[in-house]
Specification:
The protein has 329 residues and is of the alpha/beta class. It has 13 helices and 10 strands. The termini are far apart.
Length: 329
């Protein structure tokens, strides 16, 4: 079984060797390991050049210009020749039986477009934080079921995924140019192309979680909202219209997402111009009266009311849960 492992990277010189070696140490033969270095500014290039001299199946591409997350992932996946393609981020790592256990499932479910599994979440030092599992049983999920689940969010424990090359070719690989929710976009497209997916509740990889000390994620909020909007506008809504399903779940979800992300308008990390830009993309996600109200509340400094209310509700729910537990004890 021909398997390619694709590792897009940017400034991960401290972790890229661990990722590559985890790919190399799989319990079944791997056809190739492809690394696309997105014009890193640290010593990633030197690390990769040294490893490529030592590892015959390692193919390294140094991009001359920074492509961004989506295009670098897309470029890396398109270079793969294997029948099955694993996408692995350069700060994560596979456990030795990842490829063997997921690849074996594709022979059982030939209509699967991708396979994924539970992960062990680790911190930057590699220490275990927690286990991430989905609230579903191991096995195959039909495309229609996956599309309904996708309305609720990206239903993958982490973006360490094994793809069928046929499925990637069918959707023209990753054709979203937005550098946020690009993984959510791609797997939703695969489901819309009538491919199911396989999930294993077994822990088969390690996913590194970072503390956002420089508020990078906050500064990408506008791009995050645009990415989520595109998943709905370009993938979910056309599919729901094709199936003649009710759009109400999509409308409700878009409203809830816009309300959830509107809280960023109360943060002090944005200029007034940046807040106007965020408001604009929030309205594209949902322009319902309820969203407009929340935006007004956060923009006018009354967000603390919502925060206090939410904390109170959460406290009451926990109190009721605790009382019910004691009552039934």
């Amino acid at each position: 079984m021909e398997i390619s492992i694709c590792i897009p990277t940017y400034n991960q010189a401290n972790y890229i060797e661990l990722a590559i070696k985890s790919a190399l140490e799989q319990t079944i033969p791997i056809l190739e390991i492809i690394v696309s270095n997105d014009c890193s500014t640290d010593n990633t290039k030197e690390v990769l050049d040294k490893l490529s001299e030592e590892i015959s199946i390692l193919k390294v591409v140094h991009q001359p210009n920074n492509l961004g997350i989506a295009e670098n992932v897309n470029t890396c996946l398109r270079l793969a020749k294997g029948k099955y393609i694993i996408r692995l981020d350069s700060d994560d790592c596979l456990l030795p039986d990842y490829a063997e256990k997921l690849a074996s499932q594709f022979s059982l479910y030939p209509n699967a477009g991708y396979a994924h599994a539970a992960v062990e979440e680790i911190n930057p030092s590699g220490l275990k934080l927690r286990i991430r599992k989905l609230a579903r049983k191991s096995g195959f999920q039909e495309a229609d079921v996956a599309l309904k689940e996708a309305v609720k969010g990206y239903k993958v424990a982490a973006n360490i995924v094994m793809f069928s090359k046929i499925a990637l070719e069918k959707i023209n690989y990753l054709n979203s140019k937005v550098n946020f929710a690009e993984d959510y976009y791609m797997v939703t497209q695969i489901s819309a192309a009538n491919f199911g997916n396989i999930y294993s509740n077994e822990i088969l990889s390690k996913y590194r979680v970072w503390t956002d000390t420089n508020k990078v994620r906050q500064k990408r909020k506008r791009e995050e909202i645009i990415g989520l909007t595109k998943v709905f506008q370009e993938v979910l809504e056309p599919f729901y219209n094709q199936k003649k399903w009710s759009l109400r779940p999509l409308i409700n979800r878009r409203t809830n997402l816009a309300i959830k992300h509107s809280d960023c308008l109360g943060w002090n990390v944005y200029s007034s111009i940046e807040k106007e830009e965020i408001k604009s993309v929030l309205y594209k996600l949902s322009s319902s009266p309820k969203v407009k109200l929340y935006i007004w509340i956060y923009c006018n400094g009354f967000g603390f009311i919502i925060v206090s209310y939410s904390k109170t509700i959460l406290f009451i729910k926990r109190l009721v849960k605790d009382l019910l537990f004691r009552f039934h004890k």
